[in-house]
Amino acid sequence: MQIGCPKEIKPQEFRVGLTPAAAAEAVGRGHSVVVQTGAGLGAGFTDEDYQVAGATIAPDAAAVFDQAELIIKVKEPQAAERKMLRKGQILFTYLHLAPDPDQTRDLLNSGVTAIAYETVTDAKGGLPLLAPMSEVAGRLAPQVGSWALQKANGGRGVLMGGVPGVRPANVVIIGGGVVGAAAARVAVGMGANVTVMDRSVLRLSYLDDIFMGKLTTQFASAAATAELIQTADMVIGAVLIPGAAAPKLVTRDQLSTMPAGAVLVDVAIDQGGCFETSRATTHQDPIYEIDGVIHYCVANMPGAVARTSTQALGNVTMPHLLALADKGWRQAVTEDPHLRAGLSTHEGQLTSPPVGEALGLDAVTPDQVLTN
What we know:
Elements: E1 2-5, H1 20-28, E2 32-36, H2 47-52, E3 56-58, H3 61-67, E4 70-72, H4 79-82, E5 90-93, H5 101-110, E6 113-116, H6 131-149, E7 170-174, H7 178-189, E8 193-198, H8 201-211, E9 216-219, H9 222-228, E10 234-237, H10 252-255, E11 263-266, E12 287-290, E13 293-296, H11 306-327, H12 329-335, H13 337-340, E14 343-346, E15 349-350, H14 353-359, H15 366-371
Parallel strand pairs: 1-2, 1-4, 2-3, 4-5, 5-6, 7-8, 7-10, 8-9, 10-11, 11-13
Antiparallel strand pairs: 6-14, 12-13, 14-15
């Protein structure tokens, strides 16, 4: 199969969908790999690295999309890229369709078979292709939040760990999954006073055990959230409903109850955000202020540490990439129900019911597609 990897064009996205190591694996199995020139530079990979791995270098994205049967990326295809997709082609990348009707419509119109990283599952019910980026984003969240807390950036001027005689920052993390646990690890390490909220008592018990009393756990309810944010210097939104739009857990009216200069970090912004006032930002212009509260809502946070993120993502996507190339999409998803869970569009059909519900569109299940 001809595998293609274009350069990411989303603003300040420095990751690349295919590492030289993955390219070498594919070539070793008899596949052809074409990579757009400069695609890997943001992550520290040169064209020569890909050529050594056996890939060919294309002069532009059009050449990649024209040649490739299987397109592998990091971020959702942008409008210009969606125009180059076609029926019979496989797209393997993060999609986050639930809050993005324009992208969903374009993918359906193109006829492409699109498989979303973020809804591929594993035997334990986890999201293995989302997990490493969730880990990265979670670890970044307290770092970027502490930067936003600095007075020069509009924040309260609070140091995360405080100093002797001065209390540390109060950090509330909504969601105790992969993102929340990673954020808690860093925030605790920075010396902050950390509270993690979740609706799973079992998960809260687990976090209480592994952090050995270094943070506070709180069962998540609307009332508890409303109370805790009143004294929070930083709130990190770390909730996820796989494939669906994120729930809005902090309203516009509640911002007035928060301390002036407090910071909201919305790690769920790819799925529409979990704060009512969230809107996607970029690394170039990452923050904005509403009602005295600073919002950090960068939609591709892991892109800031592109080399680490690319390598971590490549480790988990490579087995699925090779399965798709070796077997074709239909056999691969038929044999692997976890990969099948990622099937989002096929030949004009929406194959993700959660996206259909979020956008008010008709959808079928991946199983229904396979029986046709």
